[in-house]
Amino acid sequence: MKGVVFPGNRKIEYLDVPDPTPGPLDVVIEMKASGMCGTDLQNYRRPLDQPVYMPSLIGRLPIAGHEPAGIVCAVGSAVPAQLARVGQRVMVHHYQGCNACAHCRTGWQQLCRNVKPMVRVYGNNDDGGHAPYLRVPANTVVALPDELSFEAGAAIACGTGTAYQALRRMHVSAADTIAIFGQRPVGLSATQFARAMNARVIAIDTNEQRLAQARRLGADLALAPSDDDVAQAILDLTGGQGVDKSLETSGAASARSAAIRAAKTWGTCCFVGEGGEVRINVSPELLRRQMTVMGSWTFSTTGQAECAAFVAAKGIDVGQLYTHRWALDQAVEAYRLFDQGVGGKGVFLL
């Protein structure tokens, strides 16, 4: 089979490798949908001379794609029936740790305490879903409800699941007004979910196309920061009180600062955007407003399953997140446009 790899410097190559076969505790998935995620661009843009940490691959790059969904087509000899079966529709929780520490045993393998320097991440340092088949440990598969499409499963497998986990950690409800900073796929998912939770949603982004999409997904208000103080604008919209909850998805320092300042006294602010820094004036911005500030990184296997169940129960059309659907042989153009910020979320359909 041929899989998409990132050699670096914004290049795409197709690597020809044997079709995978399962080890005793593995499954092989026939891929149906493999999402494109903003974190893919880190590897896509990587300098050619920057080494790639690959704990299990020798002499070749890993196949990309950490948002996989498909059908189990082969099961290892020692896989318990309750974990996976041939013909099952599944997503993949794209991390694998030691399987023994407290984090791994509760489905948080990305937080593994024993595997150093980093766990296996399918689509990053081990083979991912941008190929016809994917082999993963059976304990990484999460059932995809029959009501959901494979492309919905691919979204839930990373960005959409990340948004759901953050909202649940903040206990978002109908009593809340929430400001969501950044309306790329994670932020748009959060807008869609917060609206389904009956919260009042204020969407913030610098891109009018993304704001328009946020409106279509249920945002009550959409703000473009431009040169104005968006935190002050939100305070003005809320009678000077601020929002109950704020969620920062972009990773921009200015957005993080605004997310803190836009929240009310006793409010909650959550960061999910990767990388970067933020400066906080602790006394006036945190202590004297009794603020709760938290970070939320992806989700557990249980959280992924709960997100899928929520989407199915609420009848949420996660497919609205996608602006581009691609065949695998279009990866060069797909990542070129993605790198340029053209459109929203993309997915490869196989």
From TrEMBL:
Cofactor: Zn(2+)
InterPro entries given in the database record: ADH-like_C, ADH-like_N, ADH_Zn_CS, ER, GroES-like_sf, NAD(P)-bd_dom_sf, Zn_alcohol_dh
Coiled coil, from the record: none
Top-rank taxon: Bacteria
PROSITE patterns tied to this protein: ADH_ZINC (PS00059)
Pfam families cross-referenced by the UniProt entry: ADH_N, ADH_zinc_N
Keyword Chaperone attached: no
UniProt GO MF annotations: oxidoreductase activity, acting on the CH-OH group of donors, NAD or NADP as acceptor; zinc ion binding
Domain called Enoyl reductase (ER): residue spans: 8-348
Kinase listed as a keyword: no
Keyword terms of this UniProt record: Metal-binding, Oxidoreductase, Plasmid, Zinc
Family: Belongs to the zinc-containing alcohol dehydrogenase family.
Name used for this protein in its record: Iditol 2-dehydrogenase
Species the sequence originates in: Acidovorax carolinensis
